Amino acid sequence: MSTQVHASIDEATVRQISDELGEPEWLLETRLDALEALDELAFPDVIQTPGRKWTNLEDLDYEALVDPLDATEEKDQIGPDEIDVLPFAEAIEEHGDLLEEYFGSVVDPEKNYLTALSTALFTTGTVIHVPEGVDAEDVTIRTTMTSRSLFNYTLVVAEESSSVTILERQETAEDVDGDRYYSGITELVASENSYVQYGNLQDLDETTYTYSLREADVGTYATASWIECNVGSKLTKSSVESHLNGDSSETKIVGAFYGHNDQHFDVDARVWHNAEHTTADLVTRGVIDDRARSVYEGVQDVGREAWDTNSYQRENTLMLSDESEADASPKLIINNHDTEASHSATVGQVSEEDMFYMTSRALPERTARNMLVEGFYVPVFEEIEVEELREDLKGRIHDRLQARE
Is 1 inside a domain boundary? Predict the structure, then answer.
C-alpha cells in the first residue's frame, strides 16, 4: 500500500493512546494488529464506470490530515437511568467483559485500510448497553470536533427483548488551518426480540473529509432501523450495513443527503439476508446542486438458507444544476428462489411540467423550486420516526434552499 499516514503514527503512538485510555492488553493488541495490517489492506470499494473511479479515497493526503495525539472534541452523551451510556474510557472500567466480547464482532477491524486506521487510532467513543427487557428512548450523542482529525467509536448492545432509540450528531466548532479528517465506526448488536433505532446527522464543516461505517448484527425476531443523514463535509464515504443473522429479523435503512458547492457524497446501503423469514427496506433520497457529486450503491444479498425473504430498495437523486453529477448502482444478489425482492434507482432534474404548473399560478420560480425540493424529501421524512432528527433535517434543507441564489 503506497498511501502513508502521518509520520508520528507508529507503535509508540498507538501504545500512548491505549495507555491514556487505560485499556486492557487484548485491546492494545487489537490496535497493534490493525496498525501492522495497514500496509496490506485495500481501501473501501467504490463504484467505477468506464474510465472513471467516482471516489478516490487513496488520493487524500492522510499525512497532513491525521494527527491522533492532538485529537480533541466536545461530547455530550445522554441517556435514561435504566441503561448505560458511557464514554469509552469509563466503559473499559465498568463493562470490560462486554467490550471484550463485542468489540470487533460486527465490524472487522481489518475490513479495509480505513477501518484498520480507525481501530489503531480512535481516541473517543461511546458504549451503550441496554439490559434485557428494558425499553429506552432519548439517547443522544453529540460530538463536536475541535481538532484537525478525530477517530470515534460507538458500540451498542441491546440485550434480549429490549428496545432503544439513539440520535447521534457530528459537527465542527472552531476553524483550523487546512482540511480535517473525521472517522466514525459503529457496531450494533441487536439480540433476540430487540428493537434498535439509530439516527445520525452528519453536519461537519465543508473542510472535513469523512469516513463512517455502521454495521448491525440482527438476531432472531430483532429489528435494526438505521437513519443516515448527510449534509456536511467536503467528501463523505458512508456505509450502513445490516446482517440479518436471526430468523424473522428485520432492518430498515433510510438515507438522505443534500450536496452543494463542490461537496461529494459516496453513500452505501447494504443488507445480508442470512436466515429465514427476513425483511429489509432500503430508502434513500438525495439532492445535489452547484458542482456537487453523489454516488450511491445499494446491495441486497440473499443467502442460500434465507427462505421466505422480502427485500426492497429505492433510491432517487434530484439534480438542481447542470454542473452536478450523480451515479447509482442498486444490486440484487439472490441465491434462494423463495424470495420477493425489488430494486430501483433514478437520477433526474426538477420537472419542467411541475415548474410550469406552479409558476403559472403566480408562484415565483424560486419558491416553486424550493417547494418541489422539499416535497421530494417527503417519502424520507415519513420514514424517520425520530421527530427531533426529522425536524433537524428539514431545517437544514430549508436553510440550504433559502441560501441558494
Answer: no
Q: At what angle do helices 365-376 and 352-359 cross, to 10 degrees?
A: 130
The three three-digit cell numbers of residue 301, written as one number? 444479498
Which residue, 392, 405, 383, is CA-closest to 203? 392
What are the residues whose beta carbons fall under 8 Å from the beta carbon of 9, sequence distance 6 or more? 35, 66, 68, 120, 121
Radius of gyration of the chain measured on its C-alpha atoms: 21
pLDDT tens sequence across 96-112: 999 999 999 999 999 99
CB 168 within 8 A of CB 156: no
Nearest to 160 by CA among 136, 186, 138, 134: 134
- Report the chain's mean pLDDT, rounded to a whole number: 92
Residue 5 lies in a domain: no
Please tell me the distance from the alpha carbon of residue 267 to that of residue 257, in angstroms, as a whole number. 9
Within a 10 A sphere around the Cβ of 47, how many other Cβ atoms?
A: 16
With contact defined as beta carbons under 8 Å apart, do 215 and 187 qualify?
A: yes
Per residue in 293-326, pLDDT (tens digit) is 999 999 999 999 999 999 999 999 999 999 999 9
* Beta carbons of 150 and 124 less than 8 angstroms apart: yes
299 part of a folded domain: yes
Count of structural domains within the chain: 1
Domain extent for 397: 11-403
